[in-house]
């Protein structure tokens, strides 16, 4: 999960006692985005729901900085909770995640389970399943599903819990709306290449679902937070595509989605973008996902997005590129991400078929969506 300035200002609005927070766009009929004058279906594979109560210490620390320093701690907690209840619940009228997605003209969205007790908190598989099974989980024309799910795994204490965790993963993937697995070792500060996690990829093969990995740094934890070289090296292994390479090679029949394409959100000189391209060119089971790095506070002029899309096209990787925003919880940002991506596609010369492949068709195929 990556938060931006939009989230900060909306939290502030709430704090200032504003009882009216205007929705980003009007509550109008569903409108599909267009590219070169034609309608383009958009599927966003990267959406989050959340709960301030389970948020970990690093997540809270990060969000506290978005609030005035003089506020008492319990008032900060209260405002974060109130905000999360408005914008990070799936079906809250006017502000919920589904409303934001519909405002953005998205036809389907991937909701991710999260096990990150240190950072963003926990949204377990069972809660995602209940959101998927909810009678409100229907598309703009009443079709099943609007949200599809990605199940996750609690990778802490895996030595003693692996058997239980893998059973739980299998149980969750039997839900007809669960279409993949999502892992984010960086939020758990655990090495991505630990062979104890092999069982997860075997489950992925069994259910024929892709495994999504957060690749690249996280704004919640800087390399400079670590004191020794050894600690830094270990932390780097939590989000490095190079650390994941042997696993990708060992499982040619499991699709791996490299989320955020190795972008360094902290600009500390640990950008993995080139490695991510190399992996995608070497291994046909590698897919790349373009979420978050295009957000205004990382890429105000669209330069990173332009470079990414230009490279993906030049390297003939567009049939393995997925659209996602990771912009949940920030009113208006989900719609903004669609717009900035389509604008960037125009600047770098995508044709209509290329835009359609990235914006929805690849996700439809990979996640076997109805
Ligand atoms: Zn995320």
Structure in words:
There is one protein chain. Helix content is 41%, strand content 12%. It has 370 residues and is an alpha/beta fold. The chain has a single domain (41-366), classed as Metal-dependent hydrolases (TIM Barrel, Alpha-Beta Barrel), CATH 3.20.20.140. The chain has an 8-stranded parallel β-sheet with strand order 3-4-7-8-9-10-11-12. Strands 1-2 form a two-stranded antiparallel ribbon. The protein has a two-stranded antiparallel ribbon with strand order 5-6. It starts with a helix and ends with a helix. The protein binds zinc ion.
Beta-strand level of the residues, as a percent range?
5-15%
Helix vs. strand class: alpha/beta
Q: What Rg do the Cα atoms give?
A: 19 Å
User: Share of helix among residues?
Assistant: 40-55%
Calculate the terminal CA-CA distance, rounded to whole Å: 26 Å
Ligand set: zinc ion
Instruction: For the largest sheet, list the strands in their spatial order.
Output: 3-4-7-8-9-10-11-12
Topology:
Elements: H1 5-15, E1 34-35, E2 38-39, E3 43-47, H2 57-64, H3 73-87, H4 97-103, E4 108-112, E5 114-116, E6 121-123, H5 125-133, E7 147-151, H6 158-173, E8 178-183, H7 185-188, H8 198-207, E9 211-214, H9 229-236, H10 241-250, E10 256-259, H11 273-282, E11 286-289, H12 303-314, E12 321-322, H13 333-348, H14 352-366
Parallel strand pairs: 3-4, 4-7, 7-8, 8-9, 9-10, 10-11, 11-12
Antiparallel strand pairs: 1-2, 5-6
Helix pairs in contact: 1-3, 6-8, 12-13
The protein binds zinc ion (ZN).
Zinc ion binds next to loops.
